[in-house]
Amino acid sequence: MEGYTFVKKSKIIFEWKIPDASSFLIKESSENEILKSSDFTSGSKLDDLWRLELWLNNEHNLITEDFEEDLDLNNYLSISLCKLHDYNINTKYSFWILTDKQEKISFYSQFVDAENDSGEDWGVDEFVEKQKLLDNKAEFLPNDTLTIQVEIIIDDDALTIPVENLSNSSPSQLGQDLGNLYENKENCDITIIVGNTRFKAHKLILSVRSPVLAAAFTHDMIEKKSNEVSIPDIDPEIFEKVLRYIYTGQVSDQEVVAARLLEAADKYQLLSLKKLCEEALMRSSNRGNIVEIVALADRHSAQNLKDYAIKCIIADATNVMKTPEFGELERTNPSLALELLRKYTFSQINNTTVKEESRSLNPDFILQDISRIL
């Protein structure tokens, strides 16, 4: 399926508070003791399920290749993120300990590619030295409580926003015949000058297809009493494609020049060509160009394309609204940027469950959501 495609991500920060932590840290035992958190999920559609495990005597050896042989691992706590579901997901996880001032220490982060994931748990053997925690109890163990947080970000699923078929661009016999007429240049009665390039064409065919060209022919030719018309502000390459479309109803390489061709189609009121360009831009849209596309659609009143681009931006707002292109849009076209923010806000309200309705309708919370994205 062609269209704007992006990977939705689910994220959770799970906090695990371990009371009476010093008693576990100073306790000596010949057997490894394991503390286990409650099970938790990121809320993904994939129904992922996780648990944290803290190994007190460090005999787990999660990543033995990463530590030196003479290091006494019994002096360290090891931590692991246990995968309780039976399928693989692209996952980024990060561990840290939260201090009394809400600062993060012993930060560890890792990305696990689903294709290369063969384990049931991931983590780090040398998470934190026990003595370091005991020597700094006020900072690391306030109220004798060890607070561990883990952030999990997973690829939820790939979402493609489909492209609506706006036009019928299949070739016809008439288009083929007119294409031959254009190629052979037989019985041409007008010359169009674009830059340093001269195009021979048939005034009647161009006038029927484009009211703008028809008006230009009438006005310029009456004034100059000639069969030549100069057209400014368009590239010869683009005008050649416009001419070819006027004759054949077809256009080549439209994916490459769709933006410039849409501008020309709008200028010469070639509505069917404009729809073709809108489709091409929809198919080629991505996170890197979607802001430019919505701005282009807004400038040239390409409503189908604009609606599609807005739908894409709202669906992927957390990423798109952080791009430099969106920042530039706020500077150059603040009214359009405001329109996008408003539509995003209303989409969030409409998607809110009854349980969360009172929170999301509060303007303060709405502003918080927008500021978090930006």
Shape: rod-shaped
Please summarize the sheet with the most strands.
Answer: 4 strands, antiparallel
Mean of residue pLDDT values: 82
Helical residue percent? 40-55%
Distance between the amino and carboxyl termini = 30 Å
Major beta sheet, strand line-up: 1-8-5-6
pLDDT < 50 runs, ≥5 residues:
63-70, 353-367
Taken as a percent bin, the fraction of beta residues is: 15-25%
Helix and strand composition category: alpha+beta
Order of helices and strands: EHEEEEEEHHEHEEHHEHHHHHHHHHH
Helix count, DSSP H or I runs of 4 or more residues: 16
Write the layout of secondary structure elements.
Layout: E1 3-18, H1 21-26, E2 34-36, E3 50-55, E4 76-83, E5 91-98, E6 104-112, E7 121-129, H2 130-135, H3 137-140, E8 146-162, H4 173-184, E9 190-194, E10 197-201, H5 203-209, H6 211-224, E11 228-230, H7 236-248, H8 254-267, H9 271-283, H10 290-299, H11 303-315, H12 317-320, H13 324-332, H14 334-350, H15 357-360, H16 363-373
Parallel strand pairs: 9-11
Antiparallel strand pairs: 1-8, 2-3, 3-4, 4-7, 5-6, 5-8, 9-10
Helix pairs in contact: 5-6, 7-8, 8-9, 9-11, 10-11, 13-14
Written account of the structure:
- Pathway: Protein modification; protein ubiquitination.
- Keywords: Nucleus, Ubl conjugation pathway.
- InterPro entries: BACK_BPM_SPOP, BTB/POZ_dom, MATH/TRAF_dom, SKP1/BTB/POZ_sf, TRAF-like.
- The protein has 374 residues and is of the alpha+beta class.
- Helix content is 42%, strand content 24%.
- The chain has helices at 21-26, 130-135, 137-140, 173-184, 203-209, 211-224, 236-248, 254-267, 271-283, 290-299, 303-315, 317-320, 324-332, 334-350, 357-360, 363-373, and strands spanning 3-18, 34-36, 50-55, 76-83, 91-98, 104-112, 121-129, 146-162, 190-194, 197-201, 228-230.
- The chain has a four-stranded antiparallel beta sheet, with helices on one face.
- Strand 9 and strand 10 (197-201) form a beta hairpin.
- The longest helix has 17 residues, at 334-350.
- The chain is rod-shaped and about 105 Å long.
